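User: My advisor, Dr. K., asked me to get a structural model of this assembly before our group meeting. I'm new to this, so sorry if the format is off. These are the inputs:
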Amino acid sequence: MARVVVNVALKPEILDPQGRAVQGALSRLGLSGVMDVRQGKQFIIDIDGELEGDRADLLEKLAGELLSNPVIEDFTLTVEN
Amino acid sequence: MARVVVNVALKPEILDPQGRAVQGALSRLGLSGVMDVRQGKQFIIDIDGELEGDRADLLEKLAGELLSNPVIEDFTLTVEN
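Assistant: The format is fine. Below is the predicted structure of the whole assembly, which you can bring to the meeting.
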């Protein structure tokens, strides 16, 4: 079994109001020195067998089109075979 | 500067309808062998200076109370000092 972790985050130049709200809350609750907070999504995908070849290519493509919005988001994909 | 990554995921026994929807979509779009998908949140927190002592303890506490809902979610916290 392969476990694939896809992390999706807003591109650095896109404003992240959720992250900003978390940053404010952390500071108000006493955590000093918080410079930036970004909130993203994480998908943990369990796949039968090894992930390689066409299936790996397809998952990479779908991560960029289905799991993330390429206009405003970047993604990273990590495979643990 | 320290970068803290907090990953928040639903506990395994909690139904994840978003993950289920993604699982269905991946399969429909031609990816075979998808056994399970779980969707979680990721917070990337940049902190001034080193994170240690009281500040590290406070952030760990806030990750469990503010960033995640301890009734239905687990979190992992990774510090890159």
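One thing worth pointing out at the meeting: The helical segments of chain B are 17-28, 53-67.

User: Perfect, thanks a lot.
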